[in-house]
User: Fold this.
Amino acid sequence: MDNGTDSLLETYLFETGTLLEQLDELLIVAEQNGDFTEDNVNEIFRSMHTIKGSSAMLEFNSLMEIAHHIEDLFFYIRENGMDTLTAEQKNELFNLMFSSVDKLREEVTKVENNQPLDTNIDSFIQNINAFLNKISSAEADTT
Assistant:
């Protein structure tokens, strides 16, 4: 890699690492409170949007895909509100978010170590999409 690419990669790793640390802290506090605030939802959405965009620019497809689907999930939550989720769904959302941040961190570590990224993340993406389908169809059932 040339210096421009190295610098871009360093910036990406720093920014993404910082966002994942902030997400970890946010998730721990939100879980202790038993809910995501509107600000939490917006922050997660923005973080995923940033990770998605910068990952796409550097062609880190697994990171981009995961962030994209979490962004979609939080777009839905942002539009419909956390109060549309049951307590069970909120617990499921916390588990999904903790595993998603772990998966993103795992992929970032591969980038740092110049290892190939996962090419088959279909089952992981399916978990995110299944949860979104569950909460959006539950919302449709109550209207």
Q: What stands out?
A: The chain is about 85% helix and 0% strand. The CA atoms of residues 27 and 98 lie 7 Å apart.
